[in-house]
Design a protein that fits this description.
heterodimer, A: alpha+beta, five-stranded antiparallel beta sheet, 8 helices, elongated, B: mainly alpha, MetI-like fold, 12 helices, 2 strands, 1% strand
């Protein structure tokens, strides 16, 4: 079994933020349990989770708006959780941007430098630079209410980055944008992060967004980390059945392993798992019409249903009393029985996630 | 969308109300202000600017009006001074007790104005609570006579009565400030006091303005507090109007003064509304 690694991809750069056994409860409500996570310098880390998973609370603890109930935070070797938000070398892009409505765009961007009592000239030149970076120079004198959501988003980004924080926290900053603008902003944000080299911690509930943008994804479920890994790793080697289902589509196969062979209904394939009940995840795109290749597991199935998804097509296969989803690129025959195959290596053993409310 | 009958039915009462109780009396007042009183105490309906000329030429009216504005300005100032911190506390720090404290602010408004004014009379009088206490602790040996029947007493009482009217709009303005703006300010490195002066206070200005207007306008037209606690030196413009309509039986002059005050107040409300619009950011 391939173990999902939690190792930081950027092994060369040092650890910027260490989250150690952080837990948070609001009254009787446990929001975070025992979160430990290292964030590397210059990394783009996404905290991914459904609403109520505790991802925003974790971000607010890093920003300093909430105190952890237990555990600690360290940045560059120094305790972070003792500092009030205004002493932390961290800036936030808020979900609804939180631009000051009574200040102009340039006053908003210059706010952090002004309260830090920087000279007027320095504030002016850095604000200009930051606005140029997000292509908002033309709107310097506008009030936030006079610019669009996407523009407000850029201003919020400039307002945070102009202070040269060690770390930028982004709380679902793209959730209010429409789909096209959203995709464009994802690319821009990623490019900007590469350019400025600042560590980004990005919170989202959108797994696609997380996949596109992140160096690593920390998947949070009901206040616990399910898996921390690169998008590729988390997709191809999900640690648990929850991760497998949350990131992309998958087929979960409850198999019985004996003597190196896994059996699930009409399917069987060789595995290195130990004997007993094992749960496997098999991605739809790994199931394909049978060809001439060897070392594959073949099965006969009936195409019960298919749904057109543009470039690909999702097929519902009925194999015995087992339903499987496969992804095809051709206009496969609409019905009838045919042979399908998959590589045994693509059936990944996952830890069953217990049901939670 | 709605039938004509329905629309008439719901618009008629307010139109009637405004016409009967506002437009009609003001039209009458307006007419009276150009009439005069004969030597036999009869209202003579001949049109002239005589009342307005008398108003401008006699110092007593001007001085009383200025004193009233000065008293109203002080009431406004002290109400804001007391009201703002209270409203701020209520909005930002009262947490679970918010509703309770809010009720405590409202409750005094349920008590009759007269009762509250008389209470101050009891407190401030020669044999009142205040003087007795001051003498008891030997801070003074004789009762202080400036406590009652003075502009001081009027300002104190009106401040007590109108402070809730400043708290409520300020509280409403503070409640409308999105809390993520406060967090954004802290996040950008601003301390508590920087956040207050750069974000919270500017955004609460529309409420401050509304509260200030309430305190000033309501105090300016007040006549009970000066009547009960003002003494000769604490007379306000409304007391003159009352006596002109009463004992002096000079309705035309009283009407002229009233209309001048009305003009003053309407101008003030117009200006503050303009300013409030300019300051509000929704």
């Amino acid at each position: 079994m391939t173990l999902p690694t939690n190792a930081v991809e950027h092994a060369s750069s040092g650890v910027l933020l260490s989250i150690r056994s952080v837990a948070k409860t609001f009254g009787k409500n446990i929001v975070l349990r025992d979160i430990s996570l290292d964030v590397a310098e210059g990394e783009f880390l996404t905290i991914l989770g459904e609403s109520g998973s505790g991802k925003t609370t974790l971000l607010r603890i890093i920003a300093g708006f909430e105190q952890p109930t237990s555990g600690s935070l360290e940045m560059s070797g120094e305790r972070l959780d003792y500092l009030p938000p205004y002493r932390r070398p961290v800036n936030t892009v808020f979900q609804h941007y939180a631009l000051f409505p009574h200040l102009t765009v340039e006053q908003n961007v210059g706010y952090g430098l002004t309260v830090a009592k920087r000279s007027k000239d320095e504030v002016a030149s850095r604000v200009e630079e930051a606005l140029a970076m997000v292509k908002m120079s033309a709107y310097a004198k506008s009030k936030p209410s006079k610019i669009s959501g996407g523009q407000q988003q850029r201003v919020a980004l400039a307002r945070a980055l102009v202070n040269h924080p060690k770390m930028l926290l982004l709380d679902e900053p793209l959730s209010a944008l429409d789909a096209n603008l959203r995709r464009q902003m994802q690319m821009e944000l990623k490019a900007m992060q590469r350019k400025v080299g600042i560590t980004f911690i990005f919170v989202t509930h959108d797994q696609e967004e997380a996949m596109v943008m992140s160096d690593r994804i920390a998947l949070l479920r009901s206040g616990e980390l399910e898996q921390v890994a690169s998008p590729r790793e988390i997709y191809s080697h999900p640690a648990t059945s929850y991760v497998a289902q949350f990131i992309g589509h998958t087929n979960l196969l409850q198999a019985e392993v004996s003597n190196g062979i896994a059996r699930c209904g009409a399917l069987s394939w060789p595995t290195s798992e130990r004997d007993g009940k094992v749960l496997f995840s098999l991605r739809p795109e790994n199931i394909r019409p049978a060809g001439a290749s060897s070392d594959v597991s073949r099965f006969l199935a009936r195409i019960a249903d298919h749904a057109f998804h543009g470039a690909t097509e999702l097929l519902r296969l009925k194999c015995g009393d087992q339903m499987l989803t496969a992804r095809g690129t051709t206009g496969a025959s609409s019905s009838g029985e045919m042979n399908f195959e998959f590589s045994p290596a693509d059936a990944v053993a996952v830890r069953p996630s217990e049901e939670r409310i | 969308m709605f039938s004509r009958g329905y629309r008439t039915a719901i618009t008629l009462p307010p139109v009637l109300w405004v016409s009967l109780f506002l437009l009609l009396p003001y039209t009458l007042m307006f007419a009276y202000s150009f009439w005069s009183v004969s030597s036999t105490q009869q209202i003579v309906q001949t049109w002239s600017f005589e009342n307005y000329r008398e108003l401008l030429s006699r110092d007593v009216y001007w001085q009383t009006l200025l004193r009233s504005m000065w008293i109203a300005a002080r009431v406004m100032f002290f109400s804001l001074l007391l009201g703002y911190p209270l409203a701020y506390f209520l909005s930002f720090h009262a947490a679970k007790r918010k509703d309770l404290y809010y009720q405590l602010v409202i409750i005094p408004l349920w008590v009759s104005y007269l009762v509250r004014a008389y209470a101050w009379k009891t407190i401030l009088g020669t044999d009142g609570v205040m003087n007795t206490l001051l003498q008891y602790v030997h801070l003074t040996h004789h009762p202080l006579d400036f406590l009652l029947y003075s502009p001081f007493a009027v300002v104190l009482t009106l401040t007590h009565i109108y402070t809730p009217f400043t708290i409520l709009p300020i509280y409403a303005a503070l409640e409308h400030i999105p809390r993520n703006l406060v967090e954004a300010s802290h996040d950008l490195g601003a301390s508590q006091s920087q956040t207050f002066w750069r974000v919270i206070f500017p955004l609460s200005l529309p409420g401050v303005l509304a509260g200030a207007t309430f305190a000033f306008v309501l105090s300016l037209g007040d006549f009970l507090a000066p009547l009960l606690l003002g003494g000769p030196s604490g007379i306000m413009i409304s007391n003159i109007v009352v006596s002109l309509f009463g004992a002096a039986y000079n309705w035309p002059l009283g009407a002229a003064i009233s209309l001048c005050m009305l003009g003053l107040v309407v101008t003030l409300l117009f200006l503050t509304e303009r300013l409030e619009k300019k300051w509000s950011f929704s």
